[in-house]
Amino acid sequence: RKKIAVMTSGGDSQGMAAVIRAVVRTGINMNCDVFCVQQGYNGLIEGGEYIRKTEWADVRGYLPRGGTPIRTARCKAFYERPGRLTAAKNMVINGIDAIIICGGDGSLTGADRFRAEWPSLLEELVSKGELTAQQIVPHKHLNIVGLVGSIDNDLSGTDATIGCYSALDRISTVISWVQDTADSHSRAFVIEVMGRHCGWLALMAGVASGADFIFIPEQPREDNWKEEMCSIVKKHRDEGKHQTIVVMAEGAQDRYGKKITTDMVKDLLSDPHGLDLDTRVTIVGHPQRGGKPVAHDRMLATLQGVEAVHAVLEATPETETCFIAINENKIVRKPLMAAVQATKEVAEVIKAQDFEKAVKLRDTEFAD
Ligand code: F6P
Known about the structure:
- Substrate binds at residues 150-152, 187, 194-196, 250, 280, 286-289.
- The protein is of the alpha/beta class.
- Helix 1 packs across helix 10, helix 3 (81-94) crosses helix 4 and helix 11 packs antiparallel against helix 12.
- The protein has 12 helices and 11 strands.
- It is elongated.
- Bound molecules: 6-O-phosphono-beta-D-fructofuranose.
C-alpha cells in the first residue's frame, strides 16, 4: 500500500481544509494510506503524534471550513539540512515516500529541495546508524506534488491559487460596507489589502468595487501620481459621487521603489488646500485570510486535490516535481520549479523597473 503524506505550509488560505479532505478521501479510494502532517514542515521534523494516519470520517465537515485544521507554520528548521535530515528519518519510519503539500511558492520550493536531496539524506542517515540499509530500500525516491494555497494569487503558471477568490470576496464585502458609511458622510476611504509582491487582490477588488484609484506593486506610480489621483477623484466628485474609495496593495510603491503608504494618500485627500475630503484609513488585515471558502475555492481545492493524488500514483523516479494548476478552466499538471522561477523573475524585473517584461513573464506559458 502506498503511503502518502498531506500537509499545509506557509500562510493559510481558504480552501486548504477542502484540499486535505480531497487528498485523504481520494487516497483512501485508491487504496493508499494517507497521513496528515500537523503544522507543516514542523510536523515532519517533530514526527510522532504530528504524523497521523487519517481516515475517511476524520475529514468530515472540512469542505466548507476556513483555515487549515491540520495547522500550518513557517518552519525555519527546515531551511537547514539537520532539520531536513530528521524529517527524512520520520518519513521512512512511517513508510511514507510521497508528499502532497499545499502552500505558497516558498513552501513549494522547500519541498522540491527536499526531494532533490532525498537520496543523500537517506545515505547520511544510514551512515550515522539512524536507519538501516534495509529500511531505506523501498524509499529510494521521494515524490512531491504541490498545490498552490495562497490568497495573493501570486504564482506564475496558474490562473488562480486556492483561496484568492475567497479573500477577494472578503475584501469586496468590506469595501461595500465602507462604501455605505462613506456615502452617508461624503467621506473618502483609503483601503489597504494584502499583497506584498502581487497586486491581484487590490486590482480585482478595485474593479469589483468601482474604486476611484488603485495602487499595485506591479504598476509603480510615476512622479505625477498625486496630481493624477487628485484630478480623478475631483472629476468623480464633480460628477456627483459622494464617496471616494482608494484601494492599495500593501506593496504599493512609486517608480523609485519607495513605499507609498496609506497615510500619504490620506494626507493628500484631506489636504485643506486641495480636495479637503474627510478621509479615513481602513486596513483590512487578516480577516482576508479567514472565513469559509467561496464555492470557487471549494471546487478548485477538490478537483486539484484529486488530481494531486493521481499525479502521485502515476509518478516515476524520472518525473519532474509538478504542481497542480488551473489554466483556462482545466486542471493541469505543470513543472513546479519553472513556475517558482518565473514568479521570482517577475519580482526581480519589477524591482528593476522593467514592467513590460514583468507582464510578459506573468503571461509566459512553460512546457507541461
Ligand atoms: O498569504 C500571503 C500574505 O497574505 C501576504 O500578502 C501578506 O503580506 C502576508 O501573507 C502576511 O502574513 P503573516 O501575517 O502571516 O506574516
